[in-house]
Design brief:
By secondary structure, the protein is α+β, with helices and mostly antiparallel strands. The chain is 38% helix and 11% strand. The chain has 3 helices and 3 strands. 9% of the residues are buried.
Length: 100
């Protein structure tokens, strides 16, 4: 996770300028944005939203490259919709009521 107090935060649109070039061409903004949304080989680029703009950090770019190199995958956050969460809680209460 990006720490605003410790890391060098840059706008996502600036990220391609800080990446090494491949075949003499810079990575496109669309590629960097895709890395932040879908990832690459199971690894996602860390970003955060500040106002209306998405940002990353130099350190997050470094971690992204290191994870790709080592083959480590970024764990996907588990997001449970409120409705599903309530259904789970109701089922747990029912199990407790029946002594299970």
């Amino acid at each position: 996770m990006i720490d605003l107090s410790e890391e060098t935060v840059i706008c996502l649109s600036e990220a391609p300028r800080h990446l090494p070039r491949r075949d003499g061409r810079a990575f496109s903004l669309a590629t960097v944005y895709r890395w932040s949304l879908k990832g690459c080989r199971g690894v996602r680029l860390e970003t955060l939203q500040i106002g209306g703009r998405r940002h990353t950090s130099m350190e997050a770019l470094q971690r992204f490259a290191e994870q790709l190199t080592s083959g480590q995958k970024t764990p996907e956050p588990v997001i449970i919709p409120i409705r599903r969460e309530r259904e789970i809680e109701a089922a747990e209460r029912e199990l407790i009521a029946h002594g299970a």
